[in-house]
Amino acid sequence: MKSLYSAVIATVALLAASPSPADEAAARGETVVDQWCRLCHLRATDPPNPDMAPPYEEIVKRPGRDEAYFVEFLQEDHFPMTIYRLFDDEKRDVVAYLLSLKRN
Ligand code: HEC
Asked: What separation in angstroms does the CA of 87 have from each of 5, 60, 75, 96?
């Protein structure tokens, strides 16, 4: 009986610890952002710098920045962000990352 209990507890702990698909997408999106977007976009922990694009933590607080907005935004080229091309799955992951910042 005791070993059954510990097996159940271990399973529950494992389930609680394993990230949801949304978390995994957000983590992948963060990797994409770190690779391609940090050239211009500040991190939330960086000192303010008017020559740099704002941190995503600020962008997500702007009115109307929801999932539909970011999906649309990433479909198009935006000056000065014309030099990058993301794959569709990367775009989805970046949107998941941005939405995860909104929940924080
Ligand atoms: C060459 C510099 C540069 C790069 C690289 C860059 N950005 Fe930007 N980004 C900007 C600037 C400048 C703005 C406009 C600043 C503002 O909206 O205040 C901006 C704005 C944004 C916004 C806000 C749009 C809005 O309307 O609120 C998002 C979202 C964004 N960028 C996402 C990305 C992502 C994702 C990447 C990487 C794939 C990226 N950017 C790479 C410079 C860049």
From this structure: 46, 22, 10, 14
